[in-house]
Amino acid sequence: MSRSATSQQADNGFTLIELVVALAIIGLGLTFVLPRMMAWADRLAFSARQQRFEDALAELGSRARRSGRSVVLRSTDLAPNPNEPSPIELPASWSLTVEPPIAFRYDGICTGGKVRLSFPAGERSYRLRPPYCRPEAM
Length: 138
Prior knowledge:
Layout: H1 5-10, H2 16-67, E1 71-73, E2 95-99, E3 102-104, E4 113-119, E5 122-128, E6 135-137
Antiparallel strand pairs: 1-3, 2-4, 4-5, 5-6
């Protein structure tokens, strides 16, 4: 028995209903996956910003030695000259509280103190102990 030409064409490709069902399944899957992926990306970006801050804090002593000049870390709201850039760049909604202001001298010695980093999701504190002031999370 031979098939007619119309039945051979029906076997080639997908019907509109099959395509709509496949797209609906993909759409439902994305409604569950995308919010989780966005939250994961936000956590990853926050973690990267926090790590950049910690790296910059640990680098201040070396930066003072390389430049041959002392670097003073102060609270973000207590800068003596608002036009002078802070030694550590922070995102706009973050703030830094340093008690007392910490001086990183050109010879590699620092005065020590406590640093509190405040960000929208909370805060994190670090202790810098003299003479080398390696950051320790508190």
